[in-house]
Amino acid sequence: MAKKDKINKEELVDEEIVYEEEIIKGSSSSQAPLTFFEKYKNIIFGVAAVVAVGFIGYMWFNSNREEKTVEANDAMVRAVMYFEADSTRLALEGDGQNSGFLDIIDDFGGTAPGNLANYYAGICYLKRGQIEQAIEYLEDFSKGDDMVAASAYASLGYAYEELQEFEKAASFYEKASRLPEENGSTTPFYLMDAARNYESAGDNGKALEIYQKIKKKFPLSDEGQKVDKYIARLES
Predict the structure, then answer these.
(1) What residues in the chain have per-residue pLDDT under 50?
(2) For 87-129, what is each residue's pLDDT tens digit?
(3) DSSP letters of 79-96?
(4) Which of 8, 46, 52, 125 makes an SS bond possible with 134, Cβ 3.0 to 4.6 Å?
(5) Is the pTM of this model over 0.85?
(6) Conformation bin of residue 203: beta by default, left when phi > 0, alpha when psi is -120 to 50
(7) What is the three-class DSSP state of 209?
């Protein structure tokens, strides 16, 4: 059975579902998590822009390469455009003439674009608030060690945080913090998410360890300049 058939089509309603409810999870942490797209919009759409340009360049310079991969790239360009236009329904299902991510996964699953469609499908479902479906597709996405993988791990972290599986969420945020390599921009950003979830899981020792790492290794980052109050609270 095609994977998309497992999704209840009634969940893919015509109107866009905007998931804007802010949920505060766990009372042990003083950090109130933002909604997914409030916090990660710049990262996710930055990834989408890079990917779209990459597909267009691939098709231009490699039109004589493996036909199936070129066809998959072509389909992905249109789906990513719908994704960037904030239409999750068209991005997932297509528009009747162009395939959406779900069809691309089914039709081109053995290609790199078919794999990447799992990432985008997962993000679409996160935006719709359909957490279980998001996890399914994000976990099926074969991850490397680049910024797309980091975004996928962070997205899984967010999804499991929504399910209040805080320890699992923290582990995914930590994975995201190490990709593509530790740096002063995204690493402390994701580490703060990891620490918050360790606090929510009741592992204050691990949370304190991460806060101290941020202070020591990334003191000039936004997170590094705010982390003292979290350290003080856990050390008191």
Answers:
(1) 1-2, 5-33, 52-53, 55-64
(2) 999 999 999 999 999 999 999 988 888 999 999 999 999 989 9
(3) HHHHHHTT-HHHHHHB-S
(4) 125
(5) no
(6) beta
(7) helix
